[in-house]
Amino acid sequence: MIQTKGLTGAQTMLRVLGKMGVERIFASPGSEWSPVWEALAEPGVEGMPIYMSTRHEEVAVGMASGYAKATGKLPAVMIHTTVGALHATMGMRGALHEQVPMVVFTGESIGFGEDEGPDVGGQWLSHLADMGGPAKLVDHTVKWSFGVNTKSILPATIQRACQLAMAAPRGPVFVSLPMEYLFDKMTKDVPSDMEFAPGATADPKGIEELAQMLAGARKPVIIAEDSGRTAKSVECLVEIAELLGSPVVETRSTGSLNFPRTHPLHSGYDPKEILKGGADVIFLLSVIAPWHPASVTPVPGAKVAMLDENPLRAEIPYYGYQTDLRLTGEIESSLEHLLAAVKKKVSSGDSERKQRATELAKKNDARRKKWREDAMALASQKPMDTRWVAHELSQVLPRDAIVVEETITHRMAVHRYLDALTPGSFFSGCIGGLGTGLSTALGVKAANPKRPVVCLIGDGSFNYDPAPAVFGAVQEHNLPMLVVMFNNQGYLSQKSGVPKYYPDGWAVKSNNFSGLHIVPCPEYSTIAKAFDGYGEKVEEPSEVRKAIERGLRAVAGGQLALIDVRLKPVAEITERGEG
């Protein structure tokens, strides 16, 4: 029993969150949260979450996302009503698609000053109220959205919101709390102090069938995108792949490190390229979109099996992938059971599988060697190429570093060259939208204050991120991190599509591409200095490694660091490539 009867709604909120294991509240609230601020000041209350002000709603949600990804724990978010909720929708939508748990709260008014008790203020009618309240405004960007409509259910609703966020498939939930109830005394205790139920393991018969398919395959291929959220999941996948002699390929959109990138069976980041060699069984492991178009399986006649916590992807309007076996289950426990089943069916001394693994190792080693050679050949090229920058970064990145990536155009180079990263040390900073990379990195840093955190970001992405709010939070909470900007002075996506669709069109003939440039290019490095940080612009290829080392030293000394690396401008790029 969580005792909340007689407490204010604000006191109740904090106590229930603490009992549900919430350790951090990331906040960018408005004046409606005065009762909570008063409750936070109450002395002698044990188990209270740590409250962290973030100065912007998108930063609050992004930090919560990074924190949840890095810890697996449930964070809470407090943001301003209505307009603040709308600011946060992009980040919440990303968390929904990435299946990142968080409980997001806004305030609300339902009495507009007409009830007895503290006056909530005239701003509600004049500026802050919409039909249906904030819960209606955001309901398509979260897995569950509700406006508390009577004080008697407030305590249990907060508890239920926590449980829903952590239930498979995990994701953000949204609750609006009327300001009147935050002042008022509660009439009910929360009936139970339930822990989160673990995600269900996939059906045992289905796991047995999947093991049989993989063991009986002549040329199995494993495609993994976001299965590496725990170290155990990675370990299990390594054993399964080694038993099968199967290549493991990640996708361009991978959000976590799913498989050691220097492992002999790691086969790159292009599923279609690997599947050109044929496959009779394709195992999709926590993958949204392994190829395009969805309806055309790259290998005709191949069987396709899928394991995911959310395989039907109800949040996506279309999902036309072939699936001969679809398993729903929590990834780590399901992989543990799959490994046990595969071990019973596959001999570790199978010569055919060993030969297949040997051949794959040769191909994969040759591919990685060529990538390195390609990068080294660019050592003196100016303006710089992305591949050289990623290579140099890989040479100086500390072994315990955590990388958060929001580069988009440069993502393949990041994947290919940062190959020494370990499980739990890589996270994507966005899905389908820009503006959360810096915040995600800051949330990861809040979860790992003693480890170096490096945010890799394009200049286009940087212009979407609320950088002043993030850098202010870095300074306020003493969470220094390194930001490396891949600066090509524009949006390559604005240019790359036009030649594809109109190769002989006016834009190509005249080299006139609308919306392409981010010019004049500002001195981004000076922004860090405004927050007592270290900033540096790098234009010489030979200076990249030294500049990153200087940035890392600044971070170790407690400063934010921003290294602005000037690449070949998009205006000079004739076609879309790895650079």
SSE order and pairing:
Blueprint: H1 9-19, E1 24-28, H2 34-40, E2 50-53, H3 57-71, E3 76-79, H4 83-98, E4 102-108, H5 123-128, H6 133-137, E5 144-147, H7 154-166, E6 172-178, H8 179-183, H9 204-216, E7 220-224, H10 231-244, E8 248-250, H11 271-275, E9 281-285, E10 303-308, E11 325-328, H12 331-345, H13 351-376, H14 386-396, E12 402-406, H15 411-417, E13 426-428, H16 437-447, E14 453-458, H17 459-462, H18 467-477, E15 482-487, H19 492-501, H20 506-510, H21 525-529, E16 534-538, H22 544-556, E17 561-566
Parallel strand pairs: 1-2, 1-3, 3-4, 4-6, 5-6, 7-8, 7-9, 9-10, 10-11, 12-13, 12-14, 14-15, 15-17, 16-17
Helix pairs in contact: 1-2, 1-7, 3-4, 3-16, 9-12, 10-12, 13-14, 14-15, 14-22
Entry summary:
The chain is α/β, with parallel strands linked by helices. The chain has 22 helices and 17 strands.
Features:
579 residues; alpha/beta; 6-stranded parallel β-sheet
Notes on the protein architecture:
The chain is an alpha/beta fold. Helices cover 39% and strands 15% of the residues. The protein has 22 helices and 17 strands. Helix 10 links the parallel strand 7 and strand 8. Helix 1 crosses helix 2 and helix 9 crosses helix 12. The longest helix is centred in the middle third of the chain and has 26 residues. The N and C termini lie far apart (58 Å). The mean pLDDT is 93.
